[in-house]
Design brief:
This protein is of the alpha/beta class and 344 residues long. It has 2 domains: 126 residues, NAD(P)-binding Rossmann-like Domain (Rossmann fold, 3-Layer(aba) Sandwich); 161 residues, 2-Layer Sandwich (Dihydrodipicolinate Reductase, domain 2). The chain is 31% helix and 19% strand. It is built from 11 helices and 13 strands. The chain has a 7-stranded mixed sheet. Helix 3 links the parallel strand 3 and strand 4. Helix 7 runs parallel beside helix 9 and helix 7 packs across helix 10. The longest helix is centred in the middle third of the chain and has 16 residues.
């Protein structure tokens, strides 16, 4: 099987990461690439590390021909994606799409309007889209034509929490997620807040109490629990390029928590649950599609610390997108995604 693949928004970090992964994918052929501000340029002029590969010239979305395309990855900013993907599916209804923006992650239009400040512009597609947390929604993803790829913070946290909430081994009204992200999570656009001198030699919390990924956490944990769950979530920016590192505090029996996670992911290639009491390190997932999870008992009885880490550009974005493509297209799930961590 050869899949003709196109990328909307190929000049950002997630677009470049998609290309890094797809260029070694045995069933993928890069057919078209868009980048509005870089239209007409060679991809190598935007990302020189890709100079050895014969890639299509960047174009605008309006000029991109979807006729030969089987799979479209969309790496546009949220808010701009809805009308673009609505038009793409109207032009080619059998197209398979993985959207890496936030536009199709939330199933409730009211929740989207609340967290993103405007009404959704493609509500019919919003209701159709499947939340692309692969290990949790694999069966629905396999039947979908539109998948909303999860956020990086949420993938890290939900892989650790969904099995626990679903099994009832943690108290759902007492979940605290303390998470750190590498700077690439903010995207490639120039911003004062992500300048080297603003980020280096320190770290800080941001969007405290109102980060938009909270909506995904509420949605998926409530679905798993069968009742409303609203965790406390605080994100931080740390001076590294890649990683999400989530330290999660829960109430429950630590051994039962570990046993539940170990059983849930026993047959999962990309989620590794460490032996009880061991702590994962972000350096061991850098550049990979893997998630590593550890469970450590707190000094207080009936409390546990669950730690989850992944690469925000791979399992937290482009790698999971390729994983979802594989599932949607009936390919072995790990195809093109077996890269080991770059360490040291």
């Amino acid at each position: 099987m050869t899949l003709n693949v196109a990328i909307y928004g190929a000049s950002g970090y997630t677009g470049a990461e998609l290309l890094r992964l797809l260029l070694v994918h045995p069933e993928a052929k890069i057919t078209a690439l868009s980048a509005e501000s870089n239209a007409g340029k060679a991809m190598a002029s935007v990302f020189p590390q890709l100079a050895a590969y014969d890639l299509p010239t960047l174009t605008t979305i309006a000029d991109l021909d979807l006729a030969p395309v089987d799979v479209l990855f969309c790496a546009l900013p949220h808010g701009t994606t809805q009308t673009a993907l609505k038009a793409a599916l109207e032009a080619k209804p059998d197209l398979k799409i993985v959207d890496l923006s936030a536009d199709f992650r939330l199933s409730d239009p009211a929740a989207y309007a609340h967290w993103y400040g405007h009404a959704h512009q493609a509500e019919a597609l919003q209701k159709e889209a499947v939340y692309g947390l692969t290990e949790i929604h694999r069966d629905a993803i396999a039947k979908a034509r539109l998948v909303g790829n999860p956020g990086c913070y949420t993938t890290t946290s939900l892989l650790a929490l969904v099995p626990l909430v679903g099994a009832g081994v943690v108290e759902t009204d007492n979940i605290v997620i303390d998470a750190k992200s590498g700077v690439t999570g903010a995207g490639r656009a120039a911003k004062v807040a992500t300048l080297f001198s603003e980020v280096a030699e320190g770290f800080h919390a941001y969007s405290v109490g109102n980060h938009r990924h909270t909506a995904e956490l509420d949605q998926e944990l409530s679905l798993a629990a069968g009742a409303a769950v609203e965790p406390t979530f605080t994100p931080h920016l740390i001076p590294i390029n890649r990683a999400i590192y989530a330290t999660i505090y829960v109430s429950g029996d630590p051994k039962a928590i570990h046993d539940t996670l170990a059983a849930a992911y026993a047959d999962e290639f990309f989620v590794n649950v460490l032996p009880f009491g061991e702590v994962p390190q972000s350096r061991h997932v850098r550049g990979t599609n893997f998630t590593r999870i550890g469970v450590v008992p707190d000094r207080r009885k009936g409390r546990a610390i669950v730690i989850s880490t992944l690469d925000n550009l791979v399992k937290g974005a482009s790698g999971q997108a390729v994983q979802n493509m594989n599932v949607m297209c009936g390919l072995p799930e790990a195809t093109g995604l077996k890269q080991l961590a770059l360490f040291p």
